[in-house]
Each structure stands twice: as structure tokens, then as C-alpha cells.
Amino acid sequence: MPKLRVHGLFLLLPLVCGLLSCSPEGPPVAEAEYSAKIVGDWQGTVGDEREAISFAADGKFVSQVRPRGFISNTLGQGVTGTIRGTWEIKGRSITLNIVGADDVRLLNKTTASTIETFKPNELVVKSGNGETSTFVRAL
């Protein structure tokens, strides 16, 4: 399947820092534990969009993407869409297979990123085009 830079590969809503675990502290997660430790809710910024993504233990994900800006950030306006699919980690590579999206152009697409850094509360991924994005674990 073709690789695609999905706007917000970690198609991912800003929340007040108090709702986030703001400290990425902790030892790096061992590569063998990536699939178990990624399960949960993450938030970050990809390009000009905020993204919240939930990885489920059954290999499914749901992501909300929205633009950044004063109104969007303060009032929660401007939600641009929900993306659903499956995820898989092999080594340092995470692949997202999109099976449901508000934007039909994204349906049945696959995208992959490399896990650059993985700590208990921080995930840094690098897309195929070299863009790096950081996500923090939501409480």
C-alpha cells in the first residue's frame, strides 16, 4: 500500500497542561515493550494541527485532528475530523492503516513513522518525509 503523510499522523487536541502528564521523565521504553506501552491516550502537534490519538490493546486506534489557533485552542472549535483504523509496531516502525475517516481521501490508506524516542509519557516519531512530532501521554 502507498505511504501517506496523514495530516496529523498522530492525528492528534490540546488540553490544559494539568490534564496531561507533562513530565516525559522515566527511562526509555525497551523496543520489545513498545506495543504494550503505547496503549492509551496521547496528544501532540503535527504540522499546523493538534492531534489526540488513542491506541487500544486490540490493535485499533481513533484519532481526532483539529487546527491550531486561538478559537480552536480556547473554545474547542474547528474539529476537522476523526480517523479510525488499526496500528502495528514492528521494531521501531509504527504503521497506521486507516479504515474510517471523515475525509474519504484518507480511507484505505497506510502511513508509517519511525519511533525516535519512547519514554513512559513521551513519544517522538519521525514521518517518512522527515518531520518529527512529539506526543505526550494524557492522564
What would you note in describing this structure?
With 139 residues, this protein is mainly beta. The chain contains two helices and eight strands. Strands 1-2-3-4-5-6-7-8 form an eight-stranded antiparallel β-barrel. 28% of the residues are buried.
Beta-strand content estimate: over 45%
Main sheet record? 8 strands, antiparallel, barrel
**What's the helix-strand series?**
HEEEHEEEEE
Shape: globular
Strand order of the largest sheet: 1-2-3-4-5-6-7-8
Mean pLDDT: 79
Low-confidence stretches: 1-23
Helix content: under 10%
Class of secondary structure makeup: mainly beta
Q: What is the alpha-carbon Rg in Å?
A: 14 Å
**What is the overall number of helices?**
2
Distance between the termini: 34 Å
The quaternary state of the protein chains shown equals: single chain
Number of strands: 8
Give a brief rundown of this model.
The protein is mainly beta and 139 residues long. 7% of the residues lie in helices and 45% in strands.
Give the arrangement of secondary structure elements.
Layout: H1 34-37, E1 40-46, E2 49-55, E3 60-67, H2 70-75, E4 81-90, E5 93-101, E6 110-119, E7 122-127, E8 132-137
Antiparallel strand pairs: 1-2, 1-8, 2-3, 3-4, 4-5, 5-6, 6-7, 7-8
